[in-house]
Amino acid sequence: MPQLAIDATCLPQYDKLDKPTRERLLAATRKFRELSLDALLAHPDLRIRPLPAGQDPRIRTFRISDSWTGVMLAPESGETFLLIHLLPRDSAEDWAVDQRHDVNPVMGTLERRDATALEQASGGPGGDGSAPAGEAPARVGATAVPAASAAPPGGEGTAAPRAAPGEPAVSSRASAPFPPPPSSAVSAPSSGLLFDRVSDRDLERLGVDPEVREFCRSITTADELHGWAPALPQDQYEVLRALAEGHSVQRVRDEVVVPRRPVVGAVAADDYDTAIRHTRERVIVVNDNREIEDVLAGEFNAWRIYLHPMQRDLAYRPRFNGPAKVSGGPGTGKTVVALHRVKHLAEHLPLGGRVLLTSFTNALVESLRRNLEMLLPPEVVEDVDVVTTDKLALDVVKEVHPEVRLRTDTRGVFANYAKQHRLPWPVDFLFSEYRHVVTARGITTLEGYLAPDARAGRTTPLNADQRREVWHAISSVRAAMRTSRRLPAEDLHAEAVRILGERSELPYSNVVVDEAQDLHPAQWRTLRAAVARGPDDMFIAGDNRQRIYDNTVSFKQLGIEIVGRSFPLRVNYRTTEQILDWTDGILRGGPVTELGDSSATEPGGAMRCVLSGPEPELYGAPDEPAELDALAERVRAWLADGIAPADICVTARTNKLRDSVASHLRARSLPAAIFHPREHSITDAAQSVRVTTMHGVKGLEFRAIAVFAATADALPQLDRVTSAALDENQHQADLDAQRSLLYVACTRARERLYVSWHGTPSPFLPL
Ligand SMILES: Nc1ncnc2c1ncn2[C@@H]1O[C@H](COP(=O)(O)OP(=O)(O)OP(=O)(O)O)[C@@H](O)[C@H]1O
């Protein structure tokens, strides 16, 4: 019986099909699984056809509808069909005749190349033998070169093809898949040719075949190589790119070639069937009709089957000798790595062991739980708790004090106390001393608070008498909260740590933390106390660029010793290069501090984008009604472009703005629903444009994001910012958190970003 496999590179095209065409495609793909080979090839509706003589004999086209054609690889050996592209009927054959598929001689993977473009570049028939000059190539001789020829015909400017996971970058951002090599490893080519320092023998051992070897000999710069990415066989391009960055042959072999090689044996050059199944990076073999639908509808996320070698190394490393940390900008797959790490840990649990997967908010935890359920079989999920750190602390405390509840109005309690006792300090000051000094630093006694360095970093000085008064006020408020049995999170965690410290058995064998940048030190202490120190005790993923709550922590002081186990991720899989370039401006290019160590900055090195697309759109309206009108038109145009309503999210700074946006969109007959991330899955059936706050989009992603009312009086929202007079450092930290909030909102966009304001624009906007 024939088998169907799907090349992930064609999935974005599926988004462009209208509903009837999608249904026809699904019906066609079912036939590939259900009919015998002969019946399939003779099927009158499918009209499976080879290409004109002389072209790759394994490529066939088939009819999806009158206007759409599927392109597939139909091996002569075996019965596995690989769906490789979906194209408008009049361009499918043109595209297909340029392509050739081969089995990589060393890696055993199936690779595709634009054979026509490479042949012409190497001086073949019709070619001028020259590699494209300067920037990413535009044309070679009279022939459109890869970047152009591989772009989906009929595409409407989402520009370059969406590269498959692991496929070469199509963006022009500097690329750095590995940490920068030691300077001694980089030898600038003396001849001006990029690969002069690598012998043919080494290239061959790295899986670079004779045609690509000859081609790459004339390449002079990494940018030039980069421009050829869409034409080159995918895995060979990865090898060349790593070499071009100055990495040693040995390292490229270990990190690019070995992870792709079959564990046992080799794949024969003509064994396409095995090669298709072995190309885990790009190919999904589907087993039933339901899976086909899931894959095509994007439910079967690529990250479930493919991890970049760096991601895989971190997720599936047999053991870390202590806490390990994964950092990296937005969309670099930190959550994906954390989820796979949970899989690895849960599959290797000691008897009676449990894994904790945790994050900051209920919404994030919900989304982690959903994803984990997709990745792990149910019997393994049972060994994993997915809860917020606050819920963990509450559960621990409740085992001993069942009547205790979590309090969320702590600032109000401080406000009442300050008013009743006519304290000389504003409530924000008191609350901040409680949150950022006393509980953050774990100070439990007056002596501790009087210690000279207890308030290091605070800019409002307090003499000893003043400190006594502040301490007395804070202690009184805490005592009142304890009496009421409603504890604020900070005190709840302190109690949880005390209880855990008395237990002989700790609840978890491993703790995995996502969005770690937002946790308060009190929450970290609970996590530290919930797992015994030792190998694989903590796996931490986060990004300080995205810190939207005012917490700074020192892992070292919390007993979380990361040294030597900190790993940056640098390939962005979510956001287009254009969007990421613009959003970088929100952060003003300042150095990013290390997660868990604010005294150090992250090592430099650019992020590489896998996707490319239109520039972000900006609009400054004269007033709010005009801004709302423009927003409605923008959303309408996205819908007309075929973006599903649920793939569009409008986000605003406050609940009030959010509500006003939702009702205005509805009043203009647009399907809009207020989105509470905790209650809705982003893939649920409701066909509405999501409208939510900027906090609500944290950790999520959408094809199109509109940021509404990025005006000076909403961003920063000054009533959430400590005044500079009260504490200069806290003032700056609060402003930074709001800047990050805008950054987080914008970096949720996969393809389209629209930012609007009225009146004075927010000072955070890079205009
Ligand atoms: N190896 C991969 N192959 C394909 N897609 C991937 C891969 N890794 C991550 N992705 C995709 O990239 C997107 C971002 O991944 P993820 O949410 O893990 O990133 P993140 O670093 O946690 O992002 P953020 O910090 O912005 O929340 C997701 O759509 C994910 O499915």
Automatic annotation (TrEMBL):
<feature type="region of interest" description="Disordered">
    <location>
        <begin position="119"/>
        <end position="190"/>
    </location>
</feature>
<dbReference type="InterPro" id="IPR014016">
    <property type="entry name" value="UvrD-like_ATP-bd"/>
</dbReference>
<dbReference type="GO" id="GO:0005829">
    <property type="term" value="C:cytosol"/>
</dbReference>
<keyword id="KW-0378">Hydrolase</keyword>
<feature type="domain" description="UvrD-like helicase ATP-binding">
    <location>
        <begin position="307"/>
        <end position="583"/>
    </location>
</feature>
<keyword id="KW-0547">Nucleotide-binding</keyword>
<dbReference type="Pfam" id="PF13361">
    <property type="entry name" value="UvrD_C"/>
</dbReference>
<feature type="compositionally biased region" description="Low complexity">
    <location>
        <begin position="130"/>
        <end position="176"/>
    </location>
</feature>
<dbReference type="Pfam" id="PF00580">
    <property type="entry name" value="UvrD-helicase"/>
</dbReference>
<dbReference type="GO" id="GO:0003677">
    <property type="term" value="F:DNA binding"/>
</dbReference>
<dbReference type="InterPro" id="IPR014017">
    <property type="entry name" value="DNA_helicase_UvrD-like_C"/>
</dbReference>
<dbReference type="GO" id="GO:0005524">
    <property type="term" value="F:ATP binding"/>
</dbReference>
<dbReference type="InterPro" id="IPR000212">
    <property type="entry name" value="DNA_helicase_UvrD/REP"/>
</dbReference>
<dbReference type="InterPro" id="IPR027417">
    <property type="entry name" value="P-loop_NTPase"/>
</dbReference>
<keyword id="KW-0067">ATP-binding</keyword>
<feature type="binding site">
    <location>
        <begin position="328"/>
        <end position="335"/>
    </location>
    <ligand>
        <name>ATP</name>
    </ligand>
</feature>
<dbReference type="GO" id="GO:0000725">
    <property type="term" value="P:recombinational repair"/>
</dbReference>
<dbReference type="GO" id="GO:0016887">
    <property type="term" value="F:ATP hydrolysis activity"/>
</dbReference>
<keyword id="KW-0413">Isomerase</keyword>
<keyword id="KW-0347">Helicase</keyword>
<protein>
    <recommendedName>
        <fullName>DNA 3'-5' helicase</fullName>
        <ecNumber>5.6.2.4</ecNumber>
    </recommendedName>
</protein>
<dbReference type="GO" id="GO:0043138">
    <property type="term" value="F:3'-5' DNA helicase activity"/>
</dbReference>
